[in-house]
Amino acid sequence: MRPRTAAHANDQQPDVRLVTDGACSGNPGPGGWAYITRDTKTGIELEASGGERATTNNRMELTAAIRGLQSIEKPSRIRLISDSQYVTKGLSEWMDGWKKKGWRRGKDPLANVEMWQELDRLRQKHTITVEWVRGHNEHPENERCDKLAVAAYARFLR
Question: DSSP states of 5-47 as a string?
Fold first, then answer.
């Protein structure tokens, strides 16, 4: 994905690696989201997770990306890594078209439109590139995010 607002991109910006994942038990069902951020210059790493009693997998994938981006206060160069093609292709290929069409897919309203609009707002703040990774394929941070997301929804299964 090309940088959205090069005006604020410079060498003073932090470089952040953001890994995200969402999970659901049933779809819809209880869901969880998680992210890990790492400042590539300082090595400082943070992780967070949460869940909802009734949601969808796509909403949890989007929530992970949104919460992760929201957690980065300063405008930054962000490499967002996700196993969700919905998130990665949405950000890199589909979003501009949806926006031009009034946030629609063809004649139909766009699902999760408020979440996509928040991602659009966040990409105005940050310079975001996306990378898709295959899920459950021994990517250490993706595996960690998956465990955190599953643990977040597991509390709703008790």
Answer: -GGG-STTSPEEEEEEEEEESSSSEEEEEEEEEEETTT--EEE
